[in-house]
Amino acid sequence: MTEMRTLGGTCVNRGCLPSKNLIEAARIVWESSHPRYKGLTPAKMKFDFGELISQKQELVQSYRDKKYQSILYEEDKIKVFNGHAKLLDKHTVLVGDQTINGDQILIATGTRPTTPTIEGLEEVPYLTSDLLTTEEAQELKELPESMVIVGGGYIALELGQMFHRFGTRITILVRNQVILPKYEPEVSEALTFALREEGLQIVTSAQVIRVLQKSKQEIQVIARVGDKEQTFTGQKLLVATGRIPNTDDIGLDKVSIELDEHGFIKINDELQTNVSNIWAAGDVIDRQTDSQPATPVGAHDGVIVAKNALSNAHQKVDHRVIPRTIFTDPQVAVVGQTDEEVVGSGLRCWCGTIPLDYVPRAGATHQTTGIAKMVINRDTQEVMGVSLVMPNAGEVIHEAAMAMRFHAKLDDFLDMIHVYPTMAEALKIVAISYYKDPAKLSCCAE
Q1: Which of 414, 417, 359, 415 is CA-nearest to residue 392?
Q2: Mean pLDDT to the nearest integer, 154-172
Q3: Which of 60, 149, 252, 421 could form a disulfide with 257 if both were Cys (CB 3.0 to 4.6 A apart)?
Q4: Pick the CATH number of 84-112+244-311 from 2.40.128.110, 3.10.290.10, 3.50.50.60, 3.30.70.370
Q5: Element of type H or E holding 372
Q6: Which residues are within 8 A (CB) of 365 and not within 5 positions of it... i.e. 6 or more apart?
Q7: Integer Cα distance of 174 and 18 in angstroms
Q8: Can you give the C-alpha Rg of the chain in angstroms?
Q9: Furthest C-alpha separation in the chain
Q10: Are strands 278-280 and 105-107 parallel, antiparallel or unpaired?
Q11: What digits encode the pLDDT tens for the residues 394-408?
């Protein structure tokens, strides 16, 4: 293996692990001062942001040691060469001044934050999603008073809400007309409502024109919103406008590896490139074969590459069912196809959406902001997609994913007895809406 940065990659060092650690801490702080129940007195919880960063660092280091570094000591079967790797030919890689040879090669170099073309950005200090990294210069260790975030995807929303809950004044500038434009419109609407109700400023249809630093404490972001220019200010600027593949300067031209128009590696349904002994997996293949840029997808596909490369298994990837979650509050979780995607494929579909206040658990815990949506093939009754905006949506979505894995139909959700009251009941209730008005049901009734 080769590693040019930190063992473990994005997930453990800069992405999933540190962000979810701090997002949960921010939730505790926020709920202490914003209790959902009458009779609970708001309390201003004191916290030390520097100490939170310190415990985050300890957590990352612990996971890196237990889940990554420890594996390298097992009978010395795995060796890591530190440094920038470049292909010399289809069997040889150069790392520093060392050459490594292999019968088979797997490219799993991932992605990095992209830098958009914005006037003045090169002269202004700005943050990326790497701000949660550990023991690197990009790590943010002090809580800013205010922050402007450019971007409307999951990174912008997760980090925006997290910093807002710690007390940072947040402005999110979204180029599109809505946040999460590739998700169901009901998802975007429900989450936008929740975040704005909480106090985040979300400005849509905002095209950032230029940025400039007025002082050490103020960065100005000028954006065209509709037909007018507006100026937004913040102590810090976070650019979260997407990611680009780490395929430049790794010698792919030496072996003529084919790339798509965005620089991602082209592969077939066995994760093989156009060079027979070179394979690719993880974020570096983007959404080919209906993949999703996510750590568990890359891990799953890495196993398939090992089988195909080393034992000629000829196993094909199956990305039909990939559950995914955005860890805002409420969470967003989706699996399968959207309404628009199903219709676009030529199928007749039925789509049902219920508000979260139809779910008894949501009402009992005063957490009724959200929706549940189910998309089915009207002709076969097979469930094609599910979208949730609710607390613990990331846990609930696995029921829908497992059902879809086995081609479950609408009635399978109806016939499944659910624990009462749980958020997972939303899946049964939205299925019931195919036949009757769920607003007129008694508890547990079918």
Answers
A1: 359
A2: 98
A3: 252
A4: 3.50.50.60
A5: strand 371-377
A6: 36, 391
A7: 24
A8: 24
A9: 72
A10: parallel
A11: 999 999 999 999 999
